[in-house]
Design a protein that fits this description.
single chain; 258 residues; mainly alpha; Arc Repressor Mutant, subunit A; 2 domains; two-stranded antiparallel sheet; two-stranded antiparallel ribbon; 11 helices; 4 strands; 9% strand
Amino acid sequence: MNDETLEAVETPEPQPEREPLDLTLVKRVLEAALLSAPEPLAIGPLKRLFGGELDADSLRKILDEIREEWTDRPVELTSVASGWRFRVRPEYQRYLDRISNDKAPRYSRAVLETLAIIAYRQPVTRGDIEDIRGVAVSPPTLKALEERGWIDVVGHRETPGRPALFATTRKFLDDLNLRSLEELPALEELQSTLDANFEAAPAAPMQESLLEEAHEADPGEAPSEPPAVDDAAAPPSDTPPSSGADAPPEDTEQPHAG
């Protein structure tokens, strides 16, 4: 093999340079994907739209630019726990509700108080919830939250009987338009937030004792996050929202013998 043949074998063909992606096109593709998606889209799937030509940091920067561009529109781009999505701004949603056949479920005070305890003290057992509320937790209460996709069993406490430990899910954060548990509003604001979004049944404000006991965790202790999901592998939630007709009846509660 002479020198010319060796040089031909060892020298790779020059690769044509890729033309830079047109920023306007990138934004339109992202808008189309997010507006048509039924669930939030994570960075991994969004990167695949462009064959890997955009890295995660560049993509987040472009998404932030799109969010700014939609600031004065009735639909906004938001970042939530499961990814990015467009949603109708709350001040316009009430008008759309007038022509929607899907009615938000109505939840009892017991359901909302149980959800608040789980959100701020997670992971907790059914017994923990009963100790704080002072009444027994009826099965429909936890079932309503599990069917909605807001809570899940994340383990068992190593005590006699190994009671199930409950924690909130990514869907809970998505439905409240939050990225992490650190963005949860003050407990006093949670009921009004849930009332505004999910038509909670009229009830008195949450008990002061509940507000106090839900904050009894050690100082500086933050609620644990739901299990992390890689952006590229984050599965879409397929839990359908409950309809108003499916919402459980008001709990019949009995005092809890603590």
